[in-house]
Amino acid sequence: MARGHRDPLTDLRIEPVTAENAGDLDALFASGDPRVCQCAYMRLANAEWSWSSRDANRAVHHRAIADACADGRAAGLIAYHDDVAVGWVSFDRREAYGRLTSSRLLRPIDDRPVWSIVCFVVAPAARRTGVARRLLAATLDYAREHGIRLVESYPVDVASATRSKRSAAELWRRTVPMFEQAEFTTVGVRRQHSTAPPRPIMRRALRARRSR
Fold it and tell me: Are residues 43 and 51 in contact, defined by beta-carbon separation less than 8 angstroms?
């Protein structure tokens, strides 16, 4: 087995997040950056984030989950192993993420309706077992089933020359190779300044799943 990889979790169960199971994310978010973020970072513009707190962030996230459920959809998927949440992926309509709508780097490249996949969280014990890749595959399946035609992501370019200047914490966006393996293509690359790391924008068009 290649160094840095573990056996895959073959009995992973992936479910849409709802108001009823949203609390299962509490333990998953209990340490590291998710403890403060509570998956609200992308939902808030920078000015809002600067004044926010952990409890306020949790409220923002749970409100987004409830709003999505009321609209007949989910705001993400939870991966379970032995009935414990070990993974999470956040996705929603692009306009639901305040940081995207207010960002110069990640501003829309066109006016096409698109759903954004913005964040992955994997429990430390489940890392390097393929959880994030399976969550991405499940997200694409969910999108097809719900008539979503275009999905977008903002991963880390691990091949860039500035890799050494970036924190591993950035990997919550996951990496360009993971999305390339899922047939995403790069549709735009921006930089904060000439020596800053590139910020790729990747997309994949989807076809509706045919009924049998």
Answer: no
Angle at the Cα of 192 (from 191 to 198), degrees rounded to 5? Answer: 30
Place of tokens 């209990």: 30
- Rounded to an integer, what distance in angstroms lies between the CA atom of residue 130 and that of residue 156? 17
Q: What is the pLDDT of residue 159?
A: 81
pLDDT digits (tens, 9 = 90+) for 116-133: 999 999 999 999 899 999
172's CB contacts (< 8 A; 6+ apart) are 33, 119, 120, 121
- Distance (Å, whole) CA 140 – CA 45: 26
Higher pLDDT, 173 or 160: 173
Residues 84 and 196: their CA atoms lie apart, in Å, by 38
Q: Is 80 exceeded by the pLDDT of residue 145?
A: yes
Residues 138-147 have a mean pLDDT of: 96
Distances from the Cα of 146 to the Cα of 83, 127, 150, 157, 193, angstroms: 26, 29, 11, 29, 38
Q: What is the pLDDT of residues 76-88, one digit of tens each?
A: 999 999 999 999 9
* CATH number at 13-205: 3.40.630.30
Rounded to an integer, what distance in angstroms lies between the CA atom of residue 166 and that of residue 152? 22
